[in-house]
Design a protein that fits this description.
The chain is mainly α. It has helices spanning 13-25, 29-35, 51-57, 61-69, 87-94, 101-108, 115-118, 122-129, 132-140, 155-161, 168-177, 190-196, 201-214, 222-230, 234-241, 254-264, 270-278, 280-292.
Length: 293
């Protein structure tokens, strides 16, 4: 590579920015620091990125740290690229669990969270694109844990419906610690969704305990009870033994009820009797129907 001494420095700032961009790509720290001027902080290259964003883009921590030290104003962090992303937005959108360094440092440096502007894409950033530490930092800085997308889905519910992220158990627990709402716009609660979407036993039990601790009385769909019975989950027993009014969010059919009784089968089983007690109207209907036949 040509040394700095043999380089002819370009006159126009646009060409300087392009040369600095090349230096970032090549990780040529020495050339970059000799050529760089603080007046270039706000300049964009031909691709529409600032030099700080380019350092993030190419995962150049040393140059990223250097550029942060050269900032003349915190507003320099808020310059947007051609996609409308600030440095923080770009870092969160494009770097995941394996590299949260840039987003964490930018948050610490006071980069704007732009809560209103983030609403439409919040779930993608908070749930899927950002790492555990970034999520925690965003929540600690005041991002609303219950912000909803256009379908009314919160970050907690999205994590349950689409468990694609690493450390999903820890992420869900974090959302709960920050006061995540347990119910969606259609009346489903987080515990029911955890069961239906086959979340881990840890998540199911956590949400069960949290639901019954915070929201009493609580309705649980019959389908949830049936799934837990099929799985022989210990939560099935806990639900039946819970000393709260047990209600069904959906109407049971005789077939559903018969299937549950068939799973239990043994009339001597205490849970057989508990199901009959909890589902008194259906039990009476089923019993009457059986006698008539």
């Amino acid at each position: 590579m040509e040394s700095f001494e043999n380089k002819i420095l370009p006159v126009h700032s646009s060409q300087v920015v392009e040369d600095l961009t090349t230096a970032i790509k090549n990780n040529d720290v020495d050339y970059f620091t000799k050529l760089f001027s603080k007046s270039l902080n706000r300049e964009k290259n031909e691709a529409g990125f600032t030099l700080l964003q380019e350092a993030i883009r190419h995962n150049r921590r040393d140059l990223f740290d250097y550029l942060l030290l050269q900032l003349q104003d915190k507003d320099d962090l808020e310059i947007r690229n051609t996609s409308g992303e600030t440095a923080l937005k770009y870092a969160i959108n494009h770097f995941r669990e394996e590299n949260d360094y840039f987003s964490l440092v930018l948050i610490e440096k006071g980069a704007s969270l732009e809560v209103d502007d983030w609403s439409t894409a919040y779930l993608d950033r908070l749930v899927h694109a950002s790492s555990r530490l970034t999520k925690l930092s965003l929540l600690e800085k005041g991002i609303n844990v219950n912000i909803k997308d256009e379908c009314g889905t919160t970050p907690l519910l999205d994590s349950l419906l689409n468990p694609r992220t690493h450390h999903n158990d820890e992420i869900i627990a974090t959302f709960l610690c920050f006061g995540a709402d347990l119910f969606d716009t259609f009346g489903y609660n987080a515990f029911e969704l955890a069961v239906e979407y086959k979340q881990t036993d840890f998540v199911q039990e956590l949400l069960f305990l949290y639901t019954f601790d915070v929201h009493l009385p609580c309705d649980i769909m019959f389908e949830t009870l049936l799934i837990l019975a099929k799985q022989k989950s210990p939560l099935f027993n806990k639900i039946l033994e819970h000393d709260v009014e047990f209600m069904f969010a959906r109407e049971m059919t005789k077939t559903d009820f018969a299937e549950l009784l068939y799973i239990l089968l043994d009339p001597e089983d205490k849970y057989f009797e508990l199901v009959l007690d909890k589902c008194d109207p259906m039990a009476e209907l089923f019993s009457t129907s059986s006698k008539s036949t």
